């Protein structure tokens, strides 16, 4: 072993992108170490990211050091684990001796897939006053810039301007061939994630109409987030057996009831008064 010389650069890389975009990077032992190795220095530089909320620029160029505690000529690998969502990064590797002599850097370019996930469950509440279903849509962690949120409703009725559900979304939402379904929204995920949305308000969301619902009917809802040019499976939230109850009278209709009762009572009193007056008139005659 040559002492106090510059070590060889690590080479013969292999890497695996595991769940949650954790990268397991491996390389063969050095042919020439230049003395006892102190560590492997890993520098990770982000080239591009598709995240909607970018992380701090300070964390896009990270330097890590992995100590070599039992390095021998038969040591085969050291691991570098680095997690980042839907991005392209260059990972640079160099060997450092105990004399702080460093090898040249070698690098590998890695593309990590998306790991978007809902940050909670879908909460549903029926608004009985206007036959709508209120959705508290959870936020989406690791949301990307080109993601789209689709809200699919399955139920007994369609409005005139309903939007058909594409076949791929029908399969994801569990809509069978003979079942009725429509899209209530098709917008950028950032517009609806983490907010409240009303199913059945008859408004337009991303060129599709949010069809009104019928009272005393059951509905099923699926929220699907897809990403353009991504091999990652869409994320989905569903809710079934949601019943929209009978719509109660409006507030202005409630004011009519006492007025009607007053008129009925007043009419009855007037009728009785007239009958009694007629009887008195006959008796006097």
The CATH superfamily of the largest domain bears the name Immunoglobulins
What is the mean pLDDT? 81
Distance between the termini: 143 Å
Given this structure, which CATH class of the largest domain is correct? Mainly Beta
Helix content: 10-25%
Topology (elements, then pairings):
Blueprint: E1 14-17, E2 22-26, E3 37-49, E4 61-67, E5 80-83, E6 87-97, E7 106-111, E8 117-118, E9 123-127, E10 132-136, E11 140-141, E12 147-154, H1 167-173, E13 181-188, H2 189-192, E14 196-199, E15 217-227, E16 235-244, H3 251-284
Antiparallel strand pairs: 1-2, 2-5, 3-4, 3-6, 6-7, 8-11, 9-10, 10-14, 12-13, 12-15, 15-16
What tags apply to this protein structure?
16% helix; alpha+beta; 285 residues; 4-stranded antiparallel sheet; Immunoglobulin-like; 3 helices; 16 strands; 2 domains
What does it look like?
Keywords: Membrane, Receptor, Transmembrane, Transmembrane helix. The chain crosses the membrane at residues 254-273. The chain is α+β, with helices and mostly antiparallel strands. It folds into two domains: 11-112, Immunoglobulin-like (Sandwich); 117-244, Immunoglobulin-like (Sandwich), CATH 2.60.40.10. 16% of the residues lie in helices and 37% in strands. It has helices spanning 167-173, 189-192, 251-284, and strands at residues 14-17, 22-26, 37-49, 61-67, 80-83, 87-97, 106-111, 117-118, 123-127, 132-136, 140-141, 147-154, 181-188, 196-199, 217-227, 235-244. It has a four-stranded antiparallel β-sheet, with no helix packed on it. The model is unreliable at 70-83 (pLDDT under 50).
């Amino acid at each position: 072993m040559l002492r106090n010389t510059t070590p060889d650069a690590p080479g013969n890389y292999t890497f695996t992108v595991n769940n949650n975009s954790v990268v397991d990077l491996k390389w063969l032992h050095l042919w020439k170490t230049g003395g006892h190795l102190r560590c492997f220095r890993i520098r990770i530089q982000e080239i591009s990211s598709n995240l909607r909320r970018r992380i701090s620029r300070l964390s896009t160029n990270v330097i890590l050091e992995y100590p070599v505690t039992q390095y021998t000529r038969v040591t085969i690998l050291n691991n570098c684990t680095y997690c980042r969502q839907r991005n392209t990064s260059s990972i640079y590797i160099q060997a450092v001796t105990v004399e702080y002599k460093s090898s040249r850097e070698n690098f590998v370019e890695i593309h990590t897939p998306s790991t978007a996930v809902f940050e909670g469950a879908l909460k549903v509440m029926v608004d009985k006053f206007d036959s709508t279903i209120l959705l508290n849509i959870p936020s989406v962690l690791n949301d990307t810039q080109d993601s789209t949120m689709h809200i699919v409703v399955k139920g007994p009725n369609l409005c005139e301007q309903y939007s058909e559900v594409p076949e791929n979304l029908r399969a994801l939402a569990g809509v069978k061939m003979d079942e009725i379904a429509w899209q209530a929204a098709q917008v950028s995920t950032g517009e609806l994630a983490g907010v409240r949305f009303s199913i059945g308000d008859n408004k337009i969301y991303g060129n599709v109409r949010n069809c009104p619902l019928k009272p005393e009917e059951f509905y099923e809802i699926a929220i699907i987030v897809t990403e353009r040019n991504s091999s990652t499976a869409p994320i989905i939230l569903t809710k079934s057996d949601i019943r929209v109850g009978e719509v109660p009278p409006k507030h202005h209709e409630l004011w009519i009831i006492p007025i009607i009762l007053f008129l009925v009572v007043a009419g009855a009193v007037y009728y009785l008064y007239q009958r009694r007056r007629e009887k008195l008139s006959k008796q006097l005659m």
